[in-house]
Every structure is written in structure tokens, then in C-alpha cells.
């Protein structure tokens, strides 16, 4: 039986708003100086991560999901449910909205919806996010879009490192310039673009907008997400539960020393934000470092974490 963590090779995406922080901060070998996204844990067909070690070395996470469901709690469903990214917003991302499962399944060839959440790894002093809108009715929402009243419509919030935001499907949102974000989301690549600052791509064309779909799927009026965060300490590990909702449960961990952990029959997704250490399973040690992404399969009952490190980990709810 498979009894070791699966370390994954990230997939990188060039974006009009990307930069070099994924290399500067995490040491990744990025393909361009406008690399906006690191898909660290992905089984999505648009960018599946490849396993770097163990019996499944060379296979994609998608192949592991399809062929070895016992590693993933024998979870049902055709698609691996989550996708973990790191986003470098060297410039403002477009204002966008994502559909829910029902709409995406019907209109996007069976794609999952996209509920997501953001942990602010770092940001510039003036960085901000767009979360929600001020339209009280659908008519008012549409009117402000048609008039281009973006400053009146969009709800902006200043951010600082360590902030966390839960972004359910149907939420108008955008990541602002200067933010470095870890995103945990449903495994979906469906985005409806509402506004893109009238900027042009490398070919001189403005990017496509999806106003009809956006108006259909946006929650009106906007509803601020309410989450309860809980902090606990286990041996050398300080854990903050960031969110626990329909699709995922996400934690922030700060490790200083050693801690024994249990999977409780779940498979766990880890992304190392800072530091280094060792995972020990059945007396076998596996080193980890800043920028690593790995899966603890559900076939592992207990494991030990040692080191000085900061990470985000999650599992399906």
C-alpha cells in the first residue's frame, strides 16, 4: 500500500498581469517574466501537476486520481475536487465572477463551479482586493455596468499579509496589484470577466468580456461571507482554521519543532509558504522546503512533521 507523501511539480501560467515573484519568493523556474500563476496542486486537464517521487513518479495527479482512488479516501466523483494556486498580481487582475456547480455543469461542458478562498502571503502597502459590489438590485447592478460606474459599483478592501478571504461562487472579485496570494478553490478553470480596465493584450486587442454570463451568475445584492476562525496549538504546531465550508476546509500552520499528525482517513493538500523540515512516515524521512506542494494520501494513518515552517493545508469537506 502507498505509504509516502506525493510531492508535485507545479505548472506555471503566463498572464498579462503576472510578474517574477514566483521565482523571487519561492525559487521556481518560471517560464516568463509575466508568470502569474503557479498551479501547485492540480488535477485539472488545463494544467495537471506531475508526481515527483515514489511508485507513481512521472504520473499526473489526474492519473493517480483515476487509477488509485484508494489514495484519496475512495472519494466519489469523476474530477479531483480541489486546485491550489499561488498568484503573483504584478498588476490588477480583471474584475470577474465564477458560476456555481449547477450553472457550470450545464453551460461549461460539465465543469465544476468555482468557490475559492485567498490567503495573503505578501502584498505592497497600498494593495487591495475587490470583494463584492454595491448594486442593490439586478437593475441597478446592470445599469452601473452599462454606464461604466466601476468606482461606484465595486467594493474595495485594503489588505495586509496574513489576511484571509472566502469567495463563494457568484461573488464579484479581483486581486489587486502587488498581492501574492495562495488560492484554494474548486478544480475549475471557468472565469467570467466583467471588467478589464480597457487594457490590451500583447496582440493589441482588448480581452473578451462575459457580461451576459456574469450578470446571470452574480449574487445580487452582494452578501459578505461569514467565517469563524479558530486557533489551536498542538506540540510545536500553531494551527488556525481559516474556513470550513461545503467544498473545503483550509488551515494555516506555523511549525516550530515537531508534531505528530493524523489523517483521520482524509487526504491532505500541503503548500509550504516558508521554511523547511522533514516529514516522517513509518520511519522514512522526506525533506520539504519553501515552495513545495505535496499530498498526504489517505492510506497514511499518522505522520510526523519536523522543522521551522509556515504552510497552508486543506482537505475536502
Automatic annotation (TrEMBL):
Its EC number is 5.3.1.8. The lineage of its organism: Bacteria, Bacillati, Bacillota, Bacilli, Bacillales. Residues 238-315 form the Mannose-6-phosphate isomerase cupin domain. Belongs to the mannose-6-phosphate isomerase type 1 family. The active site is at 193. Zn(2+) binds at residues 98, 116, 173. Keywords: Isomerase, Metal-binding, Zinc. The keyword Zinc applies. Binds 1 zinc ion per subunit. This is Mannose-6-phosphate isomerase. It comes from the Bacteria. It is an enzyme of class 5 (isomerase). Pfam families: MPI_cupin_dom, PMI_typeI_cat. GO terms for molecular function: mannose-6-phosphate isomerase activity; zinc ion binding. It catalyses: D-mannose 6-phosphate = D-fructose 6-phosphate. Its cofactor is Zn(2+). One of its GO terms (biological process) is carbohydrate metabolic process. Residues 7-116 form the Phosphomannose isomerase type I catalytic domain. It comes from Alkalihalobacillus alcalophilus ATCC 27647 = CGMCC 1.3604.
Amino acid at each position: 500500500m502507498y505509504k509516502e507523501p506525493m510531492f508535485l511539480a507545479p505548472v506555471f501560467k503566463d498572464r498579462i498581469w503576472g510578474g517574477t515573484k514566483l521565482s523571487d519568493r519561492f525559487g521556481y523556474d518560471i517560464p516568463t517574466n509575466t508568470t502569474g500563476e503557479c498551479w501547485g496542486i492540480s488535477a485539472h486537464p488545463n494544467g495537471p501537476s506531475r508526481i515527483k517521487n515514489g511508485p507513481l513518479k512521472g504520473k499526473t495527479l489526474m492519473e493517480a486520481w483515476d487509477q488509485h482512488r484508494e489514495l484519496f479516501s475512495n472519494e466519489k466523483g469523476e474530477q479531483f475536487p480541489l486546485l491550489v494556486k499561488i498568484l503573483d498580481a504584478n498588476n490588477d487582475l480583471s474584475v470577474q465572477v465564477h458560476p456555481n456547480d449547477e450553472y457550470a455543469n450545464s453551460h461549461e461542458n460539465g465543469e465544476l463551479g468555482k468557490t475559492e478562498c485567498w490567503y495573503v502571503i505578501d502584498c505592497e502597502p497600498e494593495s487591495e482586493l475587490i470583494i463584492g459590489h454595491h448594486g442593490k438590485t439586478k437593475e441597478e447592478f446592470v445599469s452601473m455596468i452599462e454606464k461604466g460606474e466601476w468606482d461606484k459599483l465595486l467594493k474595495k478592501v485594503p489588505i495586509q499579509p496574513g489576511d484571509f478571504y472566502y469567495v463563494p461562487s457568484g461573488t464579484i472579485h479581483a486581486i489587486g496589484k502587488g498581492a501574492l496570494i495562495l488560492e484554494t478553490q474548486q478544480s475549475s478553470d471557468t472565469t467570467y470577466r466583467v471588467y478589464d480596465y480597457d487594457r490590451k493584450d500583447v496582440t493589441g486587442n482588448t480581452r473578451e468580456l462575459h457580461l451576459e454570463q456574469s450578470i446571470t451568475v452574480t449574487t445580487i445584492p452582494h452578501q459578505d461571507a461569514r467565517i469563524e476562525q479558530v486557533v489551536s496549538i498542538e506540540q510545536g504546531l500553531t494551527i488556525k482554521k481559516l474556513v470550513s465550508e461545503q467544498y473545503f476546509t483550509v488551515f494555516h500552520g506555523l511549525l516550530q519543532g515537531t508534531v505528530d499528525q493524523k489523517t483521520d482517513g482524509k487526504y491532505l493538500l500541503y503548500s509550504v509558504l516558508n521554511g523547511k523540515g522533514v516529514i516522517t512516515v513509518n520511519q522514512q524521512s522526506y525533506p520539504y522546503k519553501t515552495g513545495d506542494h505535496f499530498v498526504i494520501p489517505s492510506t497514511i494513518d499518522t505522520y510526523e512533521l519536523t522543522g521551522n515552517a509556515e504552510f497552508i493545508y486543506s482537505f475536502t469537506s
